[in-house]
Every structure is written in structure tokens, then in C-alpha cells.
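DM from R.C. (forwarded with permission)

"hey, sorry to bug you on a friday — could you get me a structure for this? deadline for the figure draft is monday and I only need the backbone to look sensible"
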Amino acid sequence: GGTRSSGYTGLYRDSHGQWISAFSAIRTSTGLVVGHVEVNTTRGDLLEIVYTAFRKYLLMYGLIVVLASLTTVLRARNVFLRFGEISEGLGNVAASRDWSRRVTTLDRGEYFQLAGRINTLLDEVARADRDSVSAREAVGRNLSEQSAAIDDLSVGLARIATDRNLAGILVSRDAGAFQRIADSFNDFLAEVR
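My reply, with the result:
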């Protein structure tokens, strides 16, 4: 045995074509080189092996790119569908002004959480809307009560003004002052109503 290690030759030519050779040492369990194995192949066979491996890896990486692209497109489509569901739900609520309608999504992940938060916001809007309606109704009732009281006061003043005795006394004392009071009161009533 010798001590020669593994290696390969560059391309060389002989009468049978272009070749490349590779060799490796055969060793014993103690590491002693007892022989060599050598493989020779033609340049065409070597290129075919390299091209086959290249095509195999190119095809594999191409499939990975196609699958990654398809996954991305499907995921993006899912995102747009979920946002579309949420947007449509909000549009329906806005169109109907029915704050009790719910925004829904088929997704049970982050879009479900977003829809839940929007529904909580709609509950707050509904409560604020109910409170403002109650406040408007209370103001309306108060204005109606005040208007009725002003009407009663107006009727009472009209009766007083038509009372001959009191009217005569008022006219004899200061008819101009009474007229100014009546005009001011009528102006006030016109502004309130």
C-alpha cells in the first residue's frame, strides 16, 4: 500500500473522447492505504449527470416558488374576503342605522376578534343613541309642559285684559304701560314658540 489520498483529474482527451477521472484510497481499519478505486466517465456523461441534477433542483425550487406564490395568493384572498365581510357588515349597519345588527366573519382568528371589537363599539353607539333619544324626549316633554304653562298664562292675561273693571282701572291709570307689557309678552311668546 501507498499513501495517496482521494482526488480527481481535470478533463483530458484520448482517442476515445474527453474524460474525467476520480479516485479514492481504500484503507484498512488502522488507516493503511491498501488500494485505490477509480472511476472514469466521459465529458458527455458527466454533463448529463450535472444537467439532470440541475433540472431536478430547478424543478424542485420552481415547485417551491409556485406553492409559496399560491399560498400567498390564497392567504391574501382570505384577508380580502374577511375584510370584505367586515366592511359589508359595517355598511349594512350604517345603511339601516340599526346599531343592534352584528358584524360577522367566518374566520375565528384575528378577524373574529376585530369583528367582536367593532360589535362592542356598535353597542356603545347604540347606548349613546338611546341616551340621546331619551334626552331629546325629555327636552320635548319639558318644552311641551312649558308651552302649556305659557298658554295658560296667556289665556289668564287675556281674561284679565277683557275684564271691564280692571281694564278700565288700568286704562285710566296707565294705558301705555299696559300696552308695552302686553307687546313685550307677545314678543316673548313668539320667540319661545
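R.C.: lifesaver. The mean pLDDT is 82.
me: no worries. DSSP finds three helices and four strands in the chain.
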